[in-house]
């Protein structure tokens, strides 16, 4: 019987020939991502239950990122708990300060993500890795603890919704605009408990980095996972990034696989989008919100802190001045160095931007750019909930790196197409 | 008897339940002090042990932080009754042995301050203030198994030691 790519990967992980939506399965986990906020509690739980063990020291990837470098004493203690545990269990892939980065940018870059595998992480944006034709989902600390100790986790097989991205993106329009348009249409629970499978010709024109922006925000529509099929672009990225275990299995959806619905988008008609407060579904075309005054611009995060994003922003900033305080946060040390080597930091410096070390930082109101009451921030991040980046009375406007850079220059929400 | 704290809103998210500025700790008592702080700063003063939270759709959307469940539970709340729950929050609650009630007409049939008596086995809420009975579907068996074991890790421990 026909299956979707999500069903095929879960069937393999559960050792079954076939699974169907709604079915409960116990799946073997291939990779577990651990960071500094949700893993320390998992470690403590395991110790409390006297099951202080890991199922496979080579299948766990650890990188502190949320409050890294430690923003205060309490965060330093979280890092210490993570560090002690990673050392005690001799975790093979442990990225310490200096090599640590925003997890969802770091894992693919360092070659830990392979097609056909099941990946979980103690972070809701773990769905990012679905861009590589893998099943990937975020979990809480207890699930994380269970998976760390046993290498398995229960799942309910999700039904799939197909998103056909037709046409070509217009000038100055990016994958961030596409996913904001998708979420604006279906709502923040439009894919609740479901798999969001993306297909269509527009994807063929997107790099892996651009695709990761799309799957990254699947959780913002309530989805269990976002997933994109394998193609030559996927292969090329993997050829450049996989360091060990370079073999993998490619699964694809059967032509007659069942979807509970199909949504089509003509990407040629999508304008640069801005998600207004306080939900990621608040996306409107820039033409409907241009001119609104901003206090801060933030370019970074697991959604849009990769080198391609920094290049897009730098091209717009070149020779211009930021009118509002602007933070550039490269997501990983490799991206940081690459941006430096390419001269992007000179452009950002000349424009009056702050260049930070890799961290999740202000995306979640942690540190490095937190907002005061009444302040508005245009940001390349993924959430604009109440208080997300600081004071509960501050506001976050989600946009692409291009729109964010153009808005930084003018100090108000700005259509980036005039700068490109 | 459980007093209902009703928020007639959809998409109450994890940033409202426990803002990220408090995620530098996983101390349950500390987290409980800030439960729902950005939604209702007065909640922790009003909430008494055994009370419940009532809300609309997609309760707990956003982050995977289990701190949201710990904060709610730490504040003494016995259950959350909502039209629907976000996926990760739902898993986290079950994994902690914390009961959730999915009830489509929750915000219509329960008003703020109502006194409720909840029978989880029968799937029955007696709204003592308004004098009405409200039926709900109990959690699926696999979830009850985990809850009855005292959470996922206890469940796994029992499975592996039995």
Descriptive notes:
The complex is a heterodimer of chains A (about 425) and B (about 160). Chain A is of the alpha/beta class and about 425 residues long. Chain A folds into 2 domains: about 5-265, Aconitase, domain 3 (2-Layer Sandwich); about 270-415, Aconitase, domain 3, CATH 3.30.499. Chain A contains 14 helices and 18 strands. Chain A has helices at about 5-15, 40-50, 75-90, 105-110, 140-150, 175-185, 200-205, 210-215, 230-240, 300-305, 305-315, 335-340, 345-350, 400-410; strands spanning about 25-30, 30-35, 60, 95, 120, 135-140, 150-155, 160-165, 195-200, 225-230, 260-265, 275, 285, 295-300, 325-330, 355, 375-380, 395-400. Chain A has a 5-stranded parallel beta sheet, covered by helices on one side. In chain A, strands 16-15-14-17-18 form a 5-stranded parallel beta sheet. In chain A, helix 6 (about 175-185) links the parallel strand 8 (about 160-165) and strand 9 (about 195-200). Chain A starts with a helix and ends in a 10-residue tail after the last helix. Chain B is of the alpha/beta class. Chain B has one domain: Alpha-Beta Barrel (Aconitase, domain 4). Helix content of chain B is about 35%, strand content about 20%. Chain B has 8 helices and 7 strands. Chain B has a 7-stranded mixed beta sheet. In chain B, helix 7 packs across helix 8. The longest helix of chain B is centred in the C-terminal third of the chain and has 10 residues, at about 150-160. The model of chain B has no long low-confidence stretch (mean pLDDT about 95). The interface of A and B includes residues 46, 49, 145, 154 and 388 of A.
């Amino acid at each position: 019987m026909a299956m979707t790519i999500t069903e095929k990967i879960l069937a393999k992980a559960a050792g079954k020939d076939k699974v169907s939506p709604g079915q409960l399965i116990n799946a073997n986990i291939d990779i577990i991502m651990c960071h500094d906020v949700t893993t320390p509690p998992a470690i403590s739980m395991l110790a409390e239950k006297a099951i202080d063990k890991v199922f496979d020291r080579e299948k766990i990837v650890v990188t502190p990122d949320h409050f890294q470098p430690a923003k205060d004493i309490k965060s330093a203690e979280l890092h210490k708990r993570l560090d002690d545990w990673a050392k005690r269990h001799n975790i093979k892939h442990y990225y310490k300060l200096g090599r640590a980065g925003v997890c969802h940018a770091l894992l693919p870059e360092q070659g830990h993500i392979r097609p056909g595998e099941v990946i979980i992480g103690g972070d809701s944006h773990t769905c990012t890795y679905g861009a590589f034709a893998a099943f990937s989902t975020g979990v809480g600390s207890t699930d994380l603890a269970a998976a760390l100790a046993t290498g398995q986790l229960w799942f309910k097989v999700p039904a799939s919704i197909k998103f056909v991205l037709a046409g070509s993106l217009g000038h100055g329009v990016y994958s961030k605009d596409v996913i904001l348009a998708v979420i604006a249409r279906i709502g923040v629970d439009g894919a609740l408990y479901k798999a969001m499978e993306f297909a269509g010709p527009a994807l063929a024109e997107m790099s892996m980095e651009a695709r990761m922006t799309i799957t990254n925000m699947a959780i913002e529509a309530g989805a269990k996972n976002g997933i994109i099929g394998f193609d030559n672009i996927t292969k090329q990225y993997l050829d450049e990034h996989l360091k060990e275990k370079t073999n993998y299995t490619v699964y694809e959806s059967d032509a007659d696989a069942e979807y509970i619905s199909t949504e089509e988008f003509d990407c040629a008609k999508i304008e640069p989008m801005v998600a207004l407060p306080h939900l990621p579904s608040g996306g409107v075309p820039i033409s409907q919100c241009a001119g609104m005054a901003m206090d801060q611009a933030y370019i970074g995060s697991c959604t849009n802190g990769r080198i391609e994003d920094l290049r897009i922003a730098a091209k717009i900033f070149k020779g211009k001045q930021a009118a509002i305080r602007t933070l550039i946060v490269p997501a990983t040390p490799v991206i940081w160095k690459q941006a430096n080597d390419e001269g992007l930091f000179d452009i950002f410096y000349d424009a009056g931007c702050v260049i930070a070390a890799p961290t999740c930082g202000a995306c979640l109101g942690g540190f490095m750019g937190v907002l005061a009451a009444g302040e508005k921030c245009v940001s390349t991040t993924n959430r604009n909930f109440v208080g997300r980046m600081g004071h509960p009375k501050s506001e976050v406007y989600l946009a692409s790196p291009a729109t964010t850079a153009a808005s930084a220059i003018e100090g108000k929400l700005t259509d980036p197409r005039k700068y490109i | 008897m459980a007093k209902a704290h009703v928020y007639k809103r959809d998409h109450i998210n994890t940033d409202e339940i426990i803002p990220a500025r408090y995620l530098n700790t996983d101390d349950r008592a500390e987290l409980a002090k800030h439960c729902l702080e950005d939604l209702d700063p007065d909640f922790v003063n009003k909430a008494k042990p055994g009370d419940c939270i009532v809300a609309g759709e997609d309760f707990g959307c956003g982050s995977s932080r289990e701190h949201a469940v710990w904060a709610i539970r730490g504040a003494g709340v016995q259950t959350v009754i909502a039209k629907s729950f976000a996926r990760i929050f739902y898993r986290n609650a079950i994994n902690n042995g914390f009961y959730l009630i999915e009830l489509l007409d929750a915000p219509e049939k329960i008003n703020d301050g109502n006194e409720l008596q909840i029978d989880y086995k029968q799937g029955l809420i007696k709204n003592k203030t308004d004098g009405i009975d409200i039926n709900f579907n109990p959690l699926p068996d696999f979830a009850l198994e985990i809850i009855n074991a005292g959470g996922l890790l206890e469940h796994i421990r029992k499975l592996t030691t039995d």
